[in-house]
Amino acid sequence: MQGLRATIRHWMEGRAESNLWIRVIPFAVFLVLTGLQGNLGVDSRFWAYFAKTWIGAALLWVIWPFIPEMRWRWSWTALAAGVGVFLLWIGLDTVVAALGLVGNYHRMPGPFTPWNPFVQYGEASLWAWILVLTRLIGSSLVVPPLEEVFYRSFVYRYLISSRFETVPMNRFDLRSFVMTSAVFALSHGEWLAALLCGFVYQWTVLRKNRLGDAMVAHAITNFLLGLWVIYRPAWHFW
C-alpha cells in the first residue's frame, strides 16, 4: 500500500489533471462494483456489496493523503444535518410509496426483493450477520467520504470552474447547487429524499466552508438508517 501511495504521488507531480482523477477514479471503481450487485447471480447482491465495501475502504486508505479536504470534522451543524436527513428519509417513505417508487422498485427487473441476507442465508446464519455488519460499516464509514469527495468537493466545484480546486468550499452557485443534488438523487432509489438530502449536505459544506462536516452528517444519517433497517426491520431502505 505504501508503494502504491508513492506511485500515485509520483504520477501526480506535474499533472494538472491529477486533482481531478484522484477524486473521480475511486468513486468510479466503487460505482462499477455496485453495478455488479445482482448481475452475477442472486448471491452477488450480497458478496458484491461485501467486496466493494472493503475495496472501497482500501481505496480510501490509499487516496487519503492526496485529498486534504477529506477529513472528518465534528460539529453541531453536522449532527443536526445528519439526524435531520435521517428523519426526512424515513418520513418521506410514505410519499415515495404513494408514487410507487419505494426503495429501488423502479430500477429492479421483476418483483422487488429487499436486500435481506437473513432471508437468503437464514436467521441464524453467521454469514448473514457479517454481511449486515459490513453494510452498516460500509454505509457509515466508506460511502460518506467517497460520495462527499466526488459530489460536494469535485462535481459541485467543477460545475463552477474546471479549475475546481481553486473554488472555495463556501462559494454558493445556484446552478451547481441544484445540479449536483440532482445527480446525487439519480444514483439513489429513494430519489426524492436523496435530492433533499443532497441540498442539506451541500448547505452543510457551504455553511462550514469544509467538507468534513458533510462527511460526518452523511455518516450519521447512514448509521441511523442502518440501525432503523435492522431494528424495524425495514430492509427496503437497503
Note the topology.
Elements: H1 2-12, H2 18-36, H3 44-63, H4 76-91, H5 93-98, H6 117-121, H7 126-158, H8 174-186, H9 191-208, H10 212-231
Helix pairs in contact: 2-3, 2-7, 3-7, 4-9, 4-10, 7-8, 7-10, 8-9, 9-10
Textual characterization of the structure:
It is a single chain. It is built from ten helices and no strands. With 238 residues, the protein is mainly α. It has a domain at 72-237. The radius of gyration is 18 Å and the shape is globular. The chain is 68% helix and 0% strand. Helix 2 (18-36) packs antiparallel against helix 7.
Taking the alpha carbons of the first and last residues, their distance comes to: 31 Å
Average per-residue pLDDT, rounded, comes to: 89
SSE topology string: HHHHHHHHHH
Low-confidence stretches: 103-110
| Structural class estimated from helices and strands | mainly alpha
Number of strands: 0
Q: Regarding quaternary structure, how should these chains be classified? A: single chain
How many helices? 10
Computed CA radius of gyration, to the nearest angstrom? 18 Å
Q: Which percent bin holds the helix content?
A: 55-70%
